[in-house]
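Example 290, ligand fe (ii) ion.
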Amino acid sequence: MPDVERLLRAADTLDPVPVSVSRLLAVVSRDRWAFADVEQVISHDQALTGRLMQVANSAANAALVPIGTVRDAVIRVGVGPVLSFAMAACVGRTMRRALPEYGLSEGELWAHSVATSLAVEVVTAMSPVEVPPEAVTAGLLHDVGKLVMARFLTPEVLSAIQELRTGGSSSHQAELSVLGIDHAELGAHIARRWNAPPRIVAAVAHHHEPDRAPVDPATDAVHVANVAAKLVLAREDLPGDEALPRLGSVSRLQMPGAFLERLCRHVERRLDEVMARYDTMVADRGRQAG
Ligand SMILES: [Fe+2]
Ligand SMILES: [Fe+2]
């Protein structure tokens, strides 16, 4: 069996994120930040500016008056989604890969990640508790650890995991027992390496076990959103422990009654449109990279 050190070293081989994305993450994670700071970082990155203007003026967002400035674009799209789009441009292509070790065909991890980030936006709107904007990015990145973890899921490891699953363990608990680390913690390691702010790192690390994390609405929102994204995209019935968010998260976020159904309906309704927007960011980046 591979040791944890080898898994962490493998995580270090993922490409770093562009400077503008790290800067943007750093600005928004401050307690106090101004639109001018966000505007300044975006304006220094021509490609990001172009993509943002495109998103702000896309059919779904377009108002009668076209958006012409970065500041107006950020205001129209929202800071949380802007951050998440910036991140999507650099991780989207890798996250579209098939991960057969997780039973994911091409595009499935990506669709789940985009659906989770969208669900975080919806949770933010539904909850009376203030969810920080960077939670949307944490939603997009929450399963990034699977990209690296999959390389170590040999048939031998997979059968050990399956045995524990049959005995009643959840999939991340089984990973932890067999490999000494689960995809959530591995993802947090990757996010930390990308200089993601601590709230994103914590939300990624605890997306399956929010009650074990320091209390933060970002972590609770990502946990609830992950469940909703699974429910929306599930091809078959989910195991009971995956089909419902933890009560702790639900009550800390003060979610209204029967919220899960409404949340899923919102995500379902907007997923195609939001997916198309994210795909624009990824395709554009792909063209630039050649
Ligand atoms: Fe996960
Ligand atoms: Fe997930």
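Summary: The two ends are 38 Å apart (CA to CA).
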